[in-house]
Design the sequence.
C-alpha cells in the first residue's frame, strides 16, 4: 500500500488540488450542463421543452382553479411569449431584498410547489422549470398583473437586469413570460408550430374548460383548443382515421384518498379500433409520461384480468384453448390515462416515467370496477371487443406457426444469416452499422465502397410489404421482411423478440431521392415504427442523406446535399470578385453573400405569400405592392393613399413588365349583411398567358407576417445599397439592372459559369468511391436520426398515409399540395 508521501507526489504530478474543485452557483450550473435539465440542445427537443416548462406553470394555475386561458405566441424575432390569467407570481419581498418573482426565476429549487397549500396538485415539483428557462434565454421579460398593478422584471442570460418595476395598472390578474432562447446554448432556435400545437392540444383535452391558443406570427397560423369532452374527445381524435369497434369511448373516473390530506384521481378513456397496434398515452398532473410507468402497468394488469374473467363467466373462449393474453386484448386499443396526485415521483426531471408505487394498486382497482360494469351493461360492445381479442389470439398462433416454419428453414436462426447480407467483421453491436439499401445495383456499389470492418450492407429488392395493413402471419410471408428481421438478429413476436440481440446499433436506410426511393423509405419507417419501436426509441435508426448534386469547377469537385446547398454553392462562387453598387452604397465579399441570401429569402417568401392569397393571384402584382407601394391595413381606409398606391404600382408594373398591359384596378368595400363596413381592398385584374388573373390586396395580406418580412428584407437591401438602378461589377464587366431581385439572378449566373453541375438520379449512378465519400464515410456523411417527438401525431400520420382509409389520405394531399417544392413524376 502506497504511503502518504507517494500519494502526495502523485497528486502534485497530476496538478489535482483543492483549487480544482469548482462550485457552480445559481444558474451557472444550468448553462454549463443544460442537458441535465431540458434534454438535447441540438435537435430541438430541449428548445421546445423550454416552452413546455413555462406553459406547465400556467396549467398548474388551471389545476388550482385560477386560470381559464393560456395564450402562446411565436414572434417574428424568434422569441416566445406565454400569458395566462392566473393569480400572477407573487411580487412581495422575499425577505432578502429581492421580490418573490425574482427569486422564482433566478434560484433553482424555488417555487410554490413544495407545500400543499398553494397547489394541491401540480406538474412542477422541483422548482427548476422557469428558472432554467431564464438561465437558457438570451433575454427574458416577466410581466405580472396582480391586485390591480402591472409589474415588470427583466433578465439577461439568467441575471437580473434591474429591480422589479411598477409600470402601470392592471385590469385583472395573470403572468406573461416572454423569452428568447440563447443561440449560444441552442444550435437550433426555430420553434415548430406543429410540434407545440400537438402538445397544447393534449393539454386542452386533459383540462376541461381550459382554453389554450397558440399563434405563429412568422407564418400567420393560429390554433385554439378547448374541449368539453375531455380525454374522451382525445381518444376520438386519435381514432379519427380508423374504424372503431364501438361508437363511444369507455370513460372511467375514480377518486381515492391516499391519506387524510391527500387525494388521488384517475381518469381513463379507451376505445378499440381495427388496427393491430396498441397506443397508450399517459399523463401525471398533465405532464406527458412517454415511457408510461406505474399507472400504465396497473391499467394493463386490470384490463387483462377483467377481460379474461368476463370471458370465463360468459363462456366466450370455447373455441380457443388458452385465455387471451394481455397483448391480444390490447391489439388496436387506444387509451388515455391521466392521474392526478400530490408529490408524484418520476424517473427524471423530464418526467418521462412515473415511478410512484402507490399509483398501481389504485389504478388497478378503479379500472377493474368500472370496466367490469361497462362489459356487463354493454354486452354487444363487449362481444365485439372480445371477438377482436380472439382474432388477435388466433393470428398470434398463426404467426407462431409461421415463425416456426421460417425457423425450420433456417431463416430466423442467428447462425443462418441471409445470403444477400454482406456482414461486417466487428461483433460489438455498438461499433457496427447496417445500410439497408434500395436495389441490387446500389447494393453492389455500397458493398464495394464500404468499410468492411464495421459496415454491413443489406440490399432490398423492390418495395417491402406495407405492414400497416398486415398482421404477423402475413408479414412473415414476405421474403424481404424476413431477410431484414434475420439480419437484425432480434427475432420478432412476444416469445422470441429480444432487443439486446440487435446486431447493429446503427441501422441506416439509404434510398434514392426520387418518388420510388421515398416510398421505400416510408415503407421501412412504417415497418420499424409498428414492429420495432424500441429500435427508434433507443436511437438506432437513421436515414442516409446522399447528395443530389455534384459540382465540378476545374479540378475541384464538391457534392451538394440538396437545392439549398446548390444555391449556397453558386452564391459563394458567384460573389467572388463581384461588387454591387446602388444609389446609396456598395457591397462586396462576405457582406454581398449575406445580402444575396436575404434576397433568396425575399423571393421564397414572396412565392409563399402568393400561394396563400385567394384566387388566381398574379405574382407580379403582389411584388409591385410589396416593392413600390407603402400600404398598411390602416391606409386601406384612406382614399388618397389608395389612389396614390394604385398609381405607383401601375407605373412600376409598366416599367418592369412593359408587355403585360395596363392592369385594371378598383377599390372594393366589404360589408356585412346589416350594411356594416368591415374592410376595403384593391382588386387588380391582369392577363397572363391568355388567362385573366385577379389579385386582391387587402388587410389579410398587409397585416400578415409574410408581408412584414418582405418589407423588412427590402429595407435591409435598401439600407445597404440605396435605391436602384444597381450596377453589378465583375472584373471589367459592369451590368446595369433596375430591380434588386435581379442581383440574385446575376450572381447565380456568375456562379454557374465554368461549373459542371450533375444531378444524381439514384444511388446506382454512383461508383463505390463516390458512395463511400458522400454517404458512408463517418467523417464526411450526413445522416438523420429517426426520433418520435409526438407519438399521437406520428401514429396519425402513419394511419393516414399507409392505412386503408382513402378519404383522410386525399384530404392530407389536398391540404399540403401548395407546400410541394419539387414533384418528381
Sequence:
Amino acid at each position: 500500500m502506497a504511503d502518504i508521501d507517494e500519494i502526495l507526489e502523485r497528486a502534485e504530478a497530476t496538478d489535482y488540488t483543492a483549487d480544482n474543485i469548482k462550485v457552480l452557483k445559481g444558474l451557472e450550473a444550468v448553462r454549463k450542463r443544460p442537458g441535465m435539465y431540458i434534454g438535447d440542445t441540438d435537435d430541438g427537443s430541449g428548445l421546445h421543452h423550454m416552452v413546455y416548462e413555462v406553459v406547465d406553470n400556467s396549467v398548474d394555475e388551471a389545476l388550482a382553479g385560477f386560470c381559464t386561458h393560456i395564450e402562446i405566441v411565436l414572434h417574428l424575432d424568434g422569441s416566445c411569449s406565454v400569458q395566462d390569467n392566473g393569480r400572477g407570481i407573487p411580487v412581495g419581498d422575499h425577505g432578502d431584498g429581492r421580490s418573490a418573482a425574482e427569486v422564482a426565476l433566478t434560484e433553482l429549487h424555488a417555487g410554490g410547489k413544495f407545500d400543499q397549500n398553494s397547489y394541491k396538485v401540480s406538474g412542477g415539483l422541483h422548482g427548476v422549470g422557469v428558472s432554467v428557462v431564464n438561465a437558457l434565454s438570451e433575454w427574458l421579460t416577466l410581466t405580472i398583473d396582480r391586485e390591480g398593478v402591472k409589474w415588470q422584471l427583466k433578465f439577461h442570460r439568467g441575471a437580473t437586469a434591474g429591480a422589479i418595476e411598477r409600470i402601470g395598472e392592471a385590469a385583472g390578474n395573470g403572468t406573461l413570460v416572454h423569452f428568447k432562447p440563447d443561440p449560444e446554448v441552442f444550435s437550433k432556435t426555430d420553434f415548430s408550430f406543429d410540434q407545440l400545437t400537438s402538445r397544447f392540444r393534449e393539454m386542452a383535452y386533459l383540462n376541461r374548460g381550459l382554453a389554450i391558443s397558440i399563434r405563429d406570427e412568422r407564418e400567420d397560423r393560429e390554433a385554439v383548443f378547448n374541449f368539453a369532452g375531455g380525454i374522451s374527445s382525445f381518444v376520438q381524435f386519435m381514432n379519427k382515421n380508423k374504424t372503431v369497434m364501438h361508437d363511444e369511448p369507455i370513460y372511467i373516473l375514480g377518486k381515492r384518498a391516499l391519506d387524510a390530506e391527500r387525494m388521488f384521481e384517475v381518469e381513463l378513456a379507451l376505445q378499440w379500433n381495427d388496427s393491430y397496434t396498441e397506443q397508450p398515452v399517459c399523463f401525471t398532473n398533465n405532464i406527458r409520461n412517454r415511457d408510461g410507468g406505474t399507472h400504465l402497468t396497473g391499467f394493463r394488469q386490470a384490463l387483462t384480468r377483467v377481460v379474461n374473467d368476463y370471458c370465463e363467466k360468459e363462456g366466450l373462449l370455447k373455441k380457443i384453448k388458452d385465455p387471451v393474453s394481455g397483448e391480444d386484448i390490447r391489439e388496436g386499443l387506444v387509451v388515455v390515462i391521466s392521474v392526478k396526485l400530490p408529490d408524484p415521483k418520476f424517473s427524471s426531471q423530464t418526467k418521462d416515467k412515473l415511478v410512484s408505487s402507490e399509483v398501481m394498486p389504485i389504478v388497478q382497482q378503479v379500472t377493474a370496477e368500472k370496466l367490469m360494469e361497462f362489459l356487463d351493461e354493454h354486452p354487444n360492445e363487449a362481444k365485439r371487443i372480445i371477438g377482436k381479442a380472439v382474432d388477435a389470439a388466433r393470428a398470434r398462433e398463426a404467426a407462431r406457426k409461421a415463425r416456426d416454419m421460417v425457423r425450420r428453414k433456417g431463416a430466423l436462426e442467428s447462425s443462418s444469416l441471409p445470403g444477400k447480407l454482406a456482414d461486417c467483421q466487428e461483433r460489438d453491436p455498438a461499433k457496427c452499422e447496417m445500410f439497408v439499401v434500395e436495389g441490387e445495383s446500389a447494393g453492389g456499389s455500397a458493398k464495394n465502397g464500404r468499410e468492411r470492418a464495421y459496415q454491413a450492407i443489406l440490399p432490398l429488392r423492390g418495395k417491402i410489404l406495407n405492414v400497416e395493413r398486415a398482421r404477423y402471419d402475413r408479414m412473415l410471408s414476405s421474403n424481404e421482411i424476413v431477410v431484414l428481421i434475420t439480419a437484425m438478429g432480434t427475432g420478432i413476436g412476444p416469445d422470441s423478440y429480444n432487443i439486446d440481440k440487435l446486431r447493429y446499433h446503427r441501422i441506416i436506410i439509404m434510398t434514392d431521392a426520387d418518388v420510388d426511393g421515398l416510398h421505400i423509405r416510408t415503407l421501412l419507417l412504417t415497418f420499424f415504427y409498428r414492429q420495432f419501436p424500441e429500435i427508434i426509441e433507443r436511437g438506432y435508426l437513421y436515414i442516409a442523406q446522399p447528395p443530389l448534386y455534384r459540382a465540378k469547377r476545374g479540378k475541384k469537385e464538391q457534392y451538394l446535399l440538396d437545392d439549398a446547398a446548390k444555391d449556397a454553392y453558386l452564391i459563394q462562387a458567384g460573389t467572388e470578385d463581384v461588387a454591387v453598387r446602388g444609389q446609396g452604397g456598395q457591397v462586396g465579399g462576405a457582406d454581398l453573400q449575406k445580402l444575396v441570401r436575404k434576397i433568396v429569402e425575399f423571393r421564397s417568401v414572396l412565392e409563399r405569400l402568393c400561394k396563400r392569397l385567394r384566387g388566381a393571384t398574379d405574382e407580379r402584382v403582389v411584388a409591385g405592392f410589396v416593392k413600390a407601394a407603402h400600404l398598411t391595413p390602416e391606409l386601406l381606409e384612406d382614399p388618397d393613399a389608395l389612389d396614390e398606391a394604385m398609381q405607383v404600382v401601375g407605373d412600376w408594373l409598366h416599367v418592369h413588365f412593359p408587355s403585360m398591359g395596363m392592369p385594371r384596378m378598383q377599390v372594393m368595400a366589404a360589408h356585412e349583411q346589416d350594411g356594416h363596413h368591415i374592410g376595403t381592398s384593391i382588386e387588380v385584374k391582369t392577363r397572363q398567358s391568355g388567362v385573366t388573373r385577379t389579385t386582391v390586396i387587402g388587410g389579410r395580406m398587409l397585416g400578415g407576417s409574410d408581408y412584414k418580412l418582405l418589407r423588412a428584407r427590402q429595407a435591409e437591401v435598401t439600407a445597404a445599397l440605396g435605391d436602384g438602378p444597381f450596377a453589378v461589377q465583375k472584373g471589367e464587366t459592369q451590368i446595369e439592372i433596375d430591380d434588386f431581385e435581379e442581383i440574385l439572378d446575376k450572381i447565380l449566373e456568375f456562379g454557374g459559369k465554368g461549373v459542371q453541375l450533375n444531378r444524381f438520379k439514384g444511388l446506382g449512378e454512383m461508383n463505390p468511391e463516390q458512395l463511400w465519400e458522400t454517404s458512408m464515410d463517418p467523417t464526411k456523411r450526413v445522416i438523420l436520426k429517426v426520433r418520435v417527438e409526438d407519438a399521437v401525431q406520428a401514429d396519425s400520420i402513419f394511419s393516414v398515409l399507409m392505412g386503408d382509409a382513402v378519404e383522410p389520405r386525399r384530404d392530407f394531399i389536398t391540404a399540403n399540395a401548395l407546400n410541394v417544392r419539387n414533384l418528381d413524376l
Q: What stands out?
A: Confidence is low (pLDDT under 50) at residues 20-24, 110-127. Residues 506 and 540 are 5 Å apart (CA to CA). The longest strand covers residues 677-688. The radius of gyration is 31 Å.
